[in-house]
Amino acid sequence: MYQAVPDEMIALAITAPGGPEVLVSQQVPVPKPGPGEVLVKVAFAGVNRPDVLQRQGLYPAPPDASPLLGLEISGIVVARGEGADSLQEGARVCALVAGGGYAEYCIADAGQCLPIPDSLPLDQAAALPETLFTVWHNVFDRGWAMEGETMLVHGGTSGIGTMAIMLGKLFGLKVIVTCGSEAKCQRAREIGADLAINYKDADFVEEVARMTGGKGVNLVLDMISGDYVPRNLKCLAEDGRHVTIAVLGGAKAQINMAVVMSRRYVLTGSTLRPRPASFKRLLAQEIASQVWPMVESGDLRPVMDACFPLAQAGEAHRRMEAGDHVGKIVLEV
């Protein structure tokens, strides 16, 4: 045992679906790692849009997941379950988890943990897994992005958006983003976006056509859905791919399937949290091989917005819901 693990811990629980005020501090039992799992003493936990939706009662946790919020963590391994031999107690790790991050201790699948290099601060490590797993899988695995192609990303200064910009540029893509203000467009350009469109002042369909000389983009990473989908399709070049990862603008879209056929579009999308651990382990292996060397070298770092104490998670949620953040919000545990 690396260090004594208490029987109880402080965690932020949801008293009932509602606003940020429903997040309250409680004493709860420390979970015990099962086969293939480790117990992590949490240093920092990332705050993500699904946390807000779950708090509102709109995104229930999977049946086998912790009811606590928190989908990514950084910290120290303090206990191991049977078969979790790939990690030693005392190891610094960040991990994608199915819930439970808003707490002093959290269970993580050993195969979904990534080693934290000495050069990477723990707060930044906690800001990586959710966006990195999501963007890598959807842009490169599902979206088949290739060097030299052009990608359109909505919400360019969100956690997902900033990660998409940085990963896109590291792998040779041209990245166009949309943002809700000129200040955010400027920040997106500073982060690495080739072009940024203020969607409140300009029609992004017309701007994409102008910016690409009428050719369109090869890939759209869409977090809005709803009535954005037919507009997104107008931005796509022939053989373009449309990848949906959230439905913030509504789940239903009306599109012309004749256009999809004639221009040979691919429409796809995914959700990450409900996927089985076996899939996430494979994704972690792919990221460890293809992306993690860039983290170790310092070439990839998350864009950090704000850090709140765990007890002020409600304030962190308010900041995310206000839409003023640029990059990632984390909680210090």
UniProtKB/TrEMBL annotation:
Question: Per the UniProt record, which residue ranges are transmembrane?
Answer: none
What superkingdom heads the lineage? Bacteria
Limits of the Enoyl reductase (ER) domain: 18-331
Keywords from the named record: NADP, Oxidoreductase
Tell me, what's a Pfam family for it?
ADH_zinc_N
PANTHER family, sorted: OS02G0805600 PROTEIN, QUINONE OXIDOREDUCTASE PIG3-RELATED
Q: What is this protein called?
A: NAD(P)H-quinone oxidoreductase
Instruction: State the species of origin.
Output: Novosphingobium kalidii
